[in-house]
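Progress narrative, Year 2. Work on SAC domain-containing protein from Coffea canephora advanced from sequence curation to structure prediction during this period.
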Amino acid sequence: MVKFLWKFVYSRWSYLLVITERECVGSYLGHPIFKVSSMKVFPCDHSLKNSPAEQKKMETEFSGLLSVAEKTPGLYFSYDVNITLSAQRLHDLGDESKLLPLWRQADPRFLWNNYMLEVLIDHKLDPYLLPLVQGSFNHFQAAIGKDIIDVTLIARRCTRRTGTRMWRRGADSDGFVANFVESEQIVQLNGHTASFVQVRGSIPLMWDQIVDLTYKPKFEIVRLEEAPRVAERHILDLRKKYGNVLAVDLVNKHGGEGRLCEKFANAMQHVVSDDVRYLHFDFHQICGHVHFERLSILYDQIENFLIKNRYFLLNEKREKVEVQLGVVRTNCIDCLDRTNVTQSMLGRKMLEFQLRRLGIFDAEETISTHPNFDESFKILWANHGDDISIQYSGTPALKGDFVRYGQRTIQGILKDGWNALMRYYLNNFCDGTKQDAIDLLQGHFIVSVSRDMTPTSQKGGIEAIASFPLALSVIMTGFFFAFMSLRRVRSDFWQLLFSILWAGGSLAIAAFVKANGRVFCNRPRLHQPRR
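Result:
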């Protein structure tokens, strides 16, 4: 059953992206929230039959990318409430704004279908203009004594610099960063509503980490001289939207990450003020891979900021009692694994503050003293981290066993190893095409009749013949024949020469592939983001 749709126009052809299935996943401030279960792209005309051969080829390519876009994960919507806004911002909307259609109220940063709505807006098709958010929506209910507590956790992904893990890093020249996600934790009980917002986002410098078949590609800082200006733009934008800012940097102090850490810290010196703080916490050095309880060291350093900047709170009469005055901005390299462990700790501490304020907890009581509640809370944040990670990296979050169970487990460590290998595979051999699909869907690359369409798909030089599966097959075949020749050396000494030739040829091809690793990876072809 068709729920609603959007229209795309590329070149002379247009498409409808239709939501064919949905499921209700809970409620936001009393209003039902739906998750997109299935989408389908339909062409609006059949003019392709009469198109020139080259345009027909390009149209087929773009149709294939839209098929990839059909599988976009983590899309949510509501018919009744604006889910692009936090509870505090929603409450602060003026009466006139609340009467506007949802798409007019929406925060453009988190409006996933912003570009797709443009055609329908031009044609004044308001009934179909329903905002979508990409992110996560999880909740649970639990009883503590006679009180029923409803806890909701929402993620809103920013669309300004959206993309995949290795093809969207750092910031652009306007200060918009990759993997920027707003996480809002909401608790409702006895008519009260409390909300706590925190954000994550890539290090706000212009930097890349282009895949080249190595497990950990080198970090490349672009236009270093502009780092202070870019960081300032990003932080001032946060200051404008959220109030006071505490930037918590979790990256390593040494190695490739250390250089980024140093440049980020230097750039922040130009921004730090009474309203903006920067704190570095070397997560791996202090916590290692198993001692995540040492995050208490970080909490001790930021507790005063959390207490001072509070959280949003409404009483039974829907009157504003508390206002959140600032935000903690957390980052690691990917803003996934270390970040999610840290944010779950902050969410736990803030929820305990709120439950004490509402008279549910006494002064010494914590979430961990209620096993069922504690288990549900851990699962809530573990699912939250997995959802965000799948959208950016293609796999669930690493270190998720600590968030889910409160400790590292052998099974969790083995799962992390598998997910790390999957990330390597997806980043090197799949994400370029996925990035093209995202750019096409978000309007970052727009095909027009007058635009030269052919260069996007043309390959030249080494790239025209570069195929990693083929190269790997040739290398393995060469080593196989080298081994077989080596076994016959006793009966025929010339087989030693053949073995050396086969092995040498395989090593030469392997060295060539390694030296030209970037060419053998799956890369985006449509759009180079503006710096």
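The chain is about 40% helix and 20% strand. The chain has two domains: 5-441, 467-515.
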